[in-house]
Amino acid sequence: MPFVLASIASIGMLMGYKLDESFVKDRSTAAQNNPTDYHPGKIEELLKFIDARYVDEVDTDALSEEAIQFLLNRLDPYSTYLSPQQVAAYRDQINGQYKGMGFQLNFFQDTLFVTYIYPDSPAKMAGIEPGDQILKINQHETIGPGLDINQIQQYLDEADQIRLTYRRMPDGRMINKTVQKAIIDLGSVTSYYAVDDSIGYIALSHFTTNSYRDFMLALESLVEEKGLKHLIFDLRSNPGGVLDEAIKILQQFYTTPRKLLLYTQGDHAARMEYKTSGRTFFDIKNIVILINGSSASASEIVAGAIQDTDRGIVIGQNSYGKGLVQEQYKLRNGGEVRMTIARYYTPSGRLIQKPYNHTDGQKDRIQSDSLIFKTESGRPVKAAGGITPDIIIADDHTKPLILDTLLDQKALGASIRVYNQLKKMYERKNIKQYLSDHQKIKAMLLQEFIHAAPTKYHQFISTHSEPIANQLFKKLMYMMGGDFEAKKIENMEDPFVERAIKYLQSQNKKM
Predict the structure, then answer these.
(1) Residues 180 and 195 in one domain
(2) Burial environment of residue 266 by CB neighbours within 10 A (0 to 12, 13 to 18, 19 or more)
(3) Can you give the pLDDT at residue 357?
(4) Angle at CA 93, nearest 5°, toward 125 and 415?
(5) Tens digit of pLDDT for each residue in 31-42?
(6) Residues 348 and 379 in one domain
(7) Which residues contact 355 (CB under 8 A, 6 or more apart)?
């Protein structure tokens, strides 16, 4: 997998859905204004005693952080402590930005290759291209065995201005460039395009502080330029994020004001309702939401609201089931405690949170899976955590062909070589115009792949030539245009998208 080279930690992946800021209030001011509400207790006493009397030197700060994490872990899966460093990385994540040069790299045969350039980034302005081989970062050699991603990241974190030495392929020219880092806007809309004259597709990777803006720009383009009437909104593998952005996007689907979209409630948290405004910018007729087992929290809120209000249908697989609300408490060291204070409920009253066990063996209070709720039109919908789609795509129809590590590396190499061949053939003009003949390009990719793969894999490749060619083509298209281009190719044979298109086309005929 390519990695974004910048000082942005993949903290969301490391800690899973614990970092899903679905709803955050800041109680730090209240805590500071009422110091008498809190009294030091046994933990503080013990830490002071350890600091004063323990036989060896002890890092009491680290010890206290471990104690905080241990206490929170006993409450539920999502109450957690974030260190100051994790807080900073998390802020970058939910803002959808990072400071860097704006390219992605991947190792192939002990060589670091550029696999994608972000538009309008310092790397793009410096003239760096996909397929370039990075040989030096400042004074550090980046070619040869023994290097790993962490070392490369350390080299790139040394300064805001980076000196790069790289080889331009396919002619082998050596180029030296100094690149100044800048703030890179990653964007949360990973792909959008017109499926046909009336259906549009938008994929959202997560809900950042700019997701509403990103979504509306994509929607505006599809409606005004393509004549969009119906929408496929892809929230598969979207772990959630900023609740307010999800609610603002949801509100754009409803012309009726004050319709309930979501409510939260807890033993010590009053019921809070989120409703429609009735103010929309575009007229979207029919909506399909795509979800899977990694769609969580804010994604489930969107899917649940659309389903319960009969505004559209949900297609895919049962969602993750993350329905607990965390409140944020800032600590004096710059860290933060995020503690669960309430639960999410869909408009019909379904609890989104799936069952879980507390560390003391007690089960969370959940709704029985025998409970049946009803949508506005009276359709029955199930409880017991997560969102069950209206149309379920069987899991065995969605598993891609998995290449082992060696073959995946050979696939990357084949894509890079074909990309460089195309650059040579077409003298670095807009290569995209020559990619319309998919079969010709796939044949080139497959030939390169077979040539590079060990003989023992040839039978496997022959048996699975079509899915392998599709994967190779997707890698090539990613180099050309990132997720935007690769997603179009992937969706051509995606059973989720195929079923959504079939449904919307049937609805279009009824209009």
Answers:
(1) no
(2) middle
(3) 65
(4) 50
(5) 333 434 545 678
(6) yes
(7) 363, 364, 366, 384, 385
Same domain, 426 and 460: yes
The residues facing 314 across adjacent strands are: 289
In angstroms, what CA-CA distances link 332 with 28, 32, 326, 336, 462? 10, 10, 19, 9, 61
- pLDDT reported for residue 322: 94
**Is there a contact between 74 and 359 (Cβ–Cβ < 8 Å)?**
yes
CA-closest candidate to residue 456, choices 385, 492, 404, 495: 404
Phi, psi for 229 (deg, rounded to 5): -120, -35
Q: Is residue 388 part of a domain?
A: yes
Q: Please state the three-class secondary structure of 226-278 as a single string.
A: HCCCEEEEECCCCCCECHHHHHHHHHCCCCCCCCEEEEEEECCEEEEEEECCC
- Find where tokens 């997707």 sit: 474
Per 3-state DSSP, the chain is made up of helix, strand and coil in percentages (nearest 5) of 40, 25, 35
**Do 390 and 299 reside in the same domain of the chain?**
yes
Do 222 and 363 lie in one domain? The reply is yes
CB 287 within 8 A of CB 503: no
Tell me what the mean pLDDT of segment 453-473 comes to: 87
Structural domain count, the chain: 3
Q: Which two tokens stand for residue 390?
A: 């209206």
Closest to 422 (Cα-Cα) out of 169, 104, 134: 169
Domain that holds residue 454: 405-496
* Alpha-carbon span 128 to 114, nearest angstrom: 8
Per DSSP, the three-state class of 397 is helix
Same domain, 220 and 114: no
Q: Are 287 and 306 in contact (CB under 8 A)?
A: yes
Q: Answer yes or no: is 417 within a domain.
A: yes
Residues 107 and 155 in one domain: yes
As given in the structure block, the two tokens for residue 35 are 């110091």
Question: Could you tell me which of 330, 340, 339, 299 has the C-alpha nearest to residue 207?
Answer: 299
With beta carbons less than 8 A apart as the criterion, state whether 222 and 194 touch.
Answer: yes
Q: How far apart are CA 511 and CA 158, in angstroms?
A: 60
For residue 309, being part of any structural domain is answered with yes
Percent of the chain with pLDDT over 90: 47
Position with higher pLDDT, 28 vs 399:
399
Task: Using the structure block, give the residue that is written with the tokens 């040539």.
Answer: 451
Residue 120 neighbours by CB distance under 10 Å: 11
Tell me which DSSP letter residue 74 carries.
Answer: T
- What is the rounded CA–CA span in Å between residue 44 and residue 41? 6
Based on the fold, state whether residues 439 and 420 are members of the same structural domain: yes
